[in-house]
Amino acid sequence: MINSKNITVAGARVSKVKDGITVFLSKQVTVKESVVKNPRRYGIELGGSSQIIVTNNIIIGDIYSTGIIISHSDNNIITRNLIAANGIGLCVITSKNNLIALNQIVDNEIQVRIKRSQANKWDNGTHGNFWSDYNGTDSNGDGIGDQPYTIDQDNVDRYPLMTPPLTVMVKIEVVSPYGEALGAGLYAKGQTVKVSVTPQTVDHGNGTRRVFEGWYVEGNKICDETICSFKAEKPATIEAKWRTEYYINVSSKLGEASGSGWYAKGSAAVATIKPTTIEGIIQNQVFAGWAADGKIVSTASTYAFVVNGPVNLEAVWKNGAKPSNSRGNSRYLTNSGHSYHHSC
Prior knowledge:
Layout: E1 5-10, E2 13-15, E3 19-24, E4 27-32, E5 35-37, E6 42-47, E7 53-55, E8 58-60, E9 66-71, E10 77-79, E11 82-84, E12 88-93, E13 99-101, E14 104-106, E15 110-115, E16 130-131, E17 149-152, E18 155-157, E19 169-175, E20 180-182, E21 185-188, E22 192-198, E23 201-203, E24 208-217, E25 220-223, E26 227-231, E27 236-251, E28 256-258, E29 261-264, E30 268-274, E31 277-278, E32 285-292, E33 295-298, E34 302-306, E35 311-319, E36 330-333, E37 339-342
Parallel strand pairs: 1-4, 2-5, 3-6, 4-7, 5-8, 6-9, 7-10, 8-11, 9-12, 10-13, 11-14, 12-15, 14-16, 19-27, 27-35
Antiparallel strand pairs: 17-18, 19-21, 20-22, 22-26, 23-24, 24-25, 24-27, 27-29, 28-30, 30-34, 31-32, 32-33, 32-35, 36-37
């Protein structure tokens, strides 16, 4: 936003953009309760602005990003933000009289970079910030470090916090090679997370499909159902695993063939044909084998095999001996290929 006044930005969700939330040449703006993830440059940027409140936001980046940059901006309040995993956590350039306190500044390659800036306050007189690289002591157990956190001679947090002032946030990632997976995000520790994936079966239309098997964390199954709820206790990657199935099509122009259906990869399929001889008026038909892609793969009427891909399996028949003149119920084949019964 540019040249703005008396505006509140709340609950924004920004990911993988150049700059997350930008405030230029503005006054009396509040940016709160927003999440900026993986910006390519800045998470939150203040430029030429004053009386801006940036509070209760989460900025998580990577080695190339800066969490919050304050440039040519005076008299602003930066408080209760989580600024983590950036190349630079906070960058302050030619700015003064800014209060930066009660923030959680964690695991940034460079926690703070200062350029031509003085008289900024890094504590509110009793409480400063939580710094993940602070190695001071707390001899009286009051939660405040005994030694200051020194950025440079002009920028010192006199009351660094020994524990985070914010609710601990847990990052949950949800991945699935198939379907649409939902539920990834930042959660308060102990909060219930619900992940889901749809559809449960993905048919590729070529005799191959994927069937959802369950949710896994570090190789251990935590749920069988497509919708899964659990407590966010620590950062985790939740992975949906799928079973590959192939369709086996078993067919025959004569007799009764069985065995068609979906089979898991690596499982056993069994194709059967009954009867193996069909009497005709002029010529008998005898089962000669099972063919796949035009080649005989088995001459057994019951054929068991390991499923490693979709298969079209067709019974092959050949001419047999001429039918006998025996009496009684028999199965006959007409010239059209259809069989019928008669009694004498």
